[in-house]
Write a structure and sequence with these properties.
- The protein has 3 domains: 80 residues, no CATH class; 139 residues, no CATH class; 136 residues, Tetratricopeptide repeat domain (Serine Threonine Protein Phosphatase 5, Tetratricopeptide repeat, Alpha Horseshoe).
- The protein has 10 helices and 15 strands.
- It is α+β, with helices and mostly antiparallel strands.
- Helix 9 packs across helix 10.
- The strands form 3 sheets. The protein has a 7-stranded antiparallel beta sheet with strand order 6-7-10-11-12-13-14. A 5-stranded antiparallel beta sheet has the order 1-5-4-3-2, with no helix packed on it. It has a 3-stranded antiparallel beta sheet with strand order 8-9-15.
Length: 364
């Protein structure tokens, strides 16, 4: 490397330090601090041996986060969020504390890692996501594992800072295996782009509670993300259906049941719609319902397809799929009702000749 390049690289490092008001300080000089946990991380360019440390400082309520890296043969602090991890008394159970759980996740281009209430990490498609390690703070609330937030920090090269890059709302099932059902990206909110050093966990926690209320009241926009594993499984199931492999189809659609169980052990109405209904991708949701029915999971198909036709009354083929699912359960009156609706829509669109023979037979 030329001496000019070395000078430029050195100046870039100095600028980064100056822009973030970072003070190099030896980790060993803070004798009143205790490292509670550490994570290896690769977050900031040009620094080696980076670690994320959770600190407990004497006389301070809560914990802080520090990013350290190698310098002159020892590790020194390059960024610190002093108020990131507060101890927040739970309003319903004063003896317990709320706050944030910390994890380091791996981000990919157009793929985001998500942490659920039980700490499981799953991948979701998200066009706005970029590659690089992530500091992930997951909200912890006593008595609430159904709806948690992921506040994610990444290095932003445009401002040469570690900032909040994503705020995600993660919904989990409360009645079955407590697995993640859905993930929503909330692009417009006050936490976006806040620098790591300025993050105040107590204020953020209260703001997120309000954000959840606004989300449930549909006052804010959001994007429901697709699970990478669910999408892959669905594509395999569709391929199995097309070649007539019913055993494989049943196995793959069984993978899409929460807890992998039956309707008796985990009621479909507790999770199917939240997990598989996408208002912006109604055709996909309809196809999932169709494959559930073809695999013999009629109740799951019914729960999903009822919402498809309710929210999209002109979705003609969904009535046929719903009618077939009702027929599979022996609910012939409900089946006939939906066959009739399907037939009427087909006639109105001039496609009467394409109505399957079974429709007329089952209506009778």
């Amino acid at each position: 490397m030329s001496s000019l390049c070395q000078k430029i690289r050195f100046l870039n490092i100095l600028f980064f330090v100056f822009a973030n008001s970072m003070v190099w300080a030896s980790q060993s000089t803070d004798s009143a601090s205790e490292v509670v946990k550490e994570f290896h991380i690769k977050l900031i360019p040009d620094f080696v041996g980076q670690k994320l440390l959770i600190f407990k400082e004497e006389g301070v309520v809560g914990k802080s986060l520090s990013i350290v890296a190698d310098k002159d043969g020892k590790q020194s602090v390059i960024s610190k969020a002093s108020f990131a991890l507060p101890d927040i008394r739970n309003e319903y159970s004063p003896a317990s504390y709320d706050g944030f759980a910390v994890a380091v996740l791996s981000g990919q281009e157009k793929i985001v890692s998500v942490s659920g209430g039980q700490g499981e990490d799953l991948l979701y498609k998200y066009a706005s996501s970029r590659a690089g390690d992530i500091i992930n703070l997951t909200t912890r609330e006593d008595g609430n594992t159904e709806s948690v937030f992921n506040v994610q920090f990444q290095y932003d090269a445009s401002v040469k800072k570690i900032v909040v890059s994503k705020v995600l709302l993660v919904s989990s099932n409360s009645e079955c295996d407590r697995s993640i059902l859905s993930v929503y990206a909330l692009p417009s909110n006050d936490l976006m782009s806040i620098p790591f050093e300025e993050f105040d966990g107590a204020k953020a926690f209260e703001y997120l509670k309000k954000l959840r209320s606004d989300f449930l009241a549909k006052k804010i926009g959001s994007e429901k993300l697709f699970s990478v594993s669910v999408t892959s499984n669905f594509e395999k199931a569709l391929a199995a259906f097309k070649i007539g492999d019913k055993a494989k189809l049943k196995e793959l659609m069984g993978n899409m049941l929460v807890d992998g169980g039956s309707s008796d052990s985990c009621a479909p109405d507790s999770y199917v719609v939240e997990k598989y209904y996408y208002p912006g991708m109604v055709g996909w949701s309809n196809d999932v319902g169709f494959l559930f029915a073809e695999a013999g999971y009629y109740q799951e198909a019914i729960e999903l397809l009822k919402v498809v036709v309710s929210e999209n009354p002109d979705r003609t083929v969904a009535y046929l799929n719903l009618a077939d699912a009702y027929w599979g359960l022996g609910l012939k009156e409900l089946s006939a009702e939906n066959y009739k609706k399907y037939s009427l829509l087909m006639q109105q669109s001039g496609k009467f000749a394409k109505i399957p023979k079974r429709v007329g037979e089952r209506i009778k």
